[in-house]
Amino acid sequence: MITGLDHYKEKWGILSDASIQPGLKAMEAALAELGNPHHGLPFIHIAGTNGKGSTAAFVSSILMAHGKRVGNFFSPAIEDVHDQIQINRQPVGEKEFDLAMEQLATVKTALTDFELLTVAAILMLKEQSPDYIIMEAGMGGRFDSTNVIEPLVSIITSISKEHTAFLGDTIEEIAWHKAGIIKQGKPVVIGELPESAHEQVIKIAEDKNAPVFTVQPYKGPLTLKGAHQEVNASLAWTAAKRILGDCFNEEKAISGLAQAAIPFRFEEVLPGVILDGAHNEASIHALVETIEENYPNKKIHIVMGLIQGKDYLSILKPLENIATRFTFINFKDERAMPAKILFSENISKIKTIQNEYDILPVHEEVEVTIVTGSLYLLSLLKQQNYEMFRLYK
């Protein structure tokens, strides 16, 4: 579900399929009907299991600190479809969407919802004529709808098991998908990858004659918390150096990284209430490390809701080692996992189930509430202005 897309589909009489159908043929055909608007645009392409959004935000901030105008295509939405497409970190408006959808209404090629959104993003971003466009892959890379672009540089942030029904059961298979964004002769910047994934990426890069750049964690000032964000910042730093060349200025890059922010990345939305969109094993381990680093002497209350299909046991177990209590949330999404499943598998002695409209008092100065799991849940709570957490002692 892409929040807000149906409004435009209905307005312009566009039909598209909500299913996931990996492959590029429909994208290529639809773009050809529109005159191939993606050709020649200054793209930066980002794939990876975790860290895509943060790395995209870091790259944007560095380029903007150098006076560049930057377009972004993020996935998924924070609030609705508008914030997935941004210019200088400002979401596009209804006028821009209407102009793109008016063109898409003429397209005869059948598209999925995400393909439709990707084409719309390309049309809108081209119209805005930014200096650079950062595209975040939705799932995988090789057969993701964003992989029709020819980037100046590709970035692979991390690789771990995810979407196994589509990407395969092994790290090597998943790495093969992610490395599909590497293009002939174009540089690729890679993060800290498992050895087997690293080997797969290097092999594909060599086959493409694409130079590979690895990184060391950045140790400068960051608003975004956690050791994993230092790695994401270093990815952005290395990529920006390749993009800007002799125009790269270290002071401007440091300033840009320090200012970079993105919702739901260990974001304190109210005193003692932190939202973090960790929703797989690797990102949960990064979350646990960040909690231990920032709140070593606090009681930890975990509030969680997940989408079905996630390996919820590998998500729950690391949190059980640090949490004092759990609250599992039933939230309105057709793919939401029933909270009773998480409740029954959780070994915590203090646990409960609520829905997103219940009030969840936050009243202990010695306790920190960490809301995590599905980005769709976090988005719902944001839309409700975090009313669930507004009853204090």
Task: State the main characteristics.
single chain, 393 residues, alpha/beta, 8-stranded mixed sheet
Order of helices and strands: HHEHEEEHHEEHHEHEHHEEHEHEHEEH
| Helix amount | 25-40%
Strand order of the largest sheet: 4-3-2-5-1-6-7-8
Mean pLDDT: 94
Major beta sheet summary: 8 strands, mixed
- Strand fraction equals 15-25%
Structural class: alpha/beta
Radius of gyration (Å): 21 Å
The tally of beta strands, per DSSP, is 14
- Counting H and I runs of at least 4 residues, what is the number of helices? 14
Distance between the termini: 37 Å
**Uncertain residue segments:** none
Shape: globular
Q: How would you describe the overall organization of this protein?
A:
The structure is a single chain. This protein has 393 residues and is of the alpha/beta class. The protein has helices spanning 5-11, 25-33, 52-65, 94-104, 113-128, 164-167, 171-178, 195-207, 227-244, 250-259, 281-294, 312-320, 339-345, 375-383, and strands at residues 43-47, 70-73, 85-87, 90-91, 132-136, 151-156, 188-190, 212-214, 267-270, 273-276, 299-305, 325-330, 351-355, 367-373. Strands 4-3-2-5-1-6-7-8 form an 8-stranded mixed β-sheet, with helices on both faces. A 6-stranded mixed β-sheet has the order 9-10-14-11-12-13, sandwiched between helices. α3 (52-65) packs across α10, α4 (94-104) packs across α5 and α11 (281-294) runs parallel beside α12 (312-320). The mean pLDDT is 94.
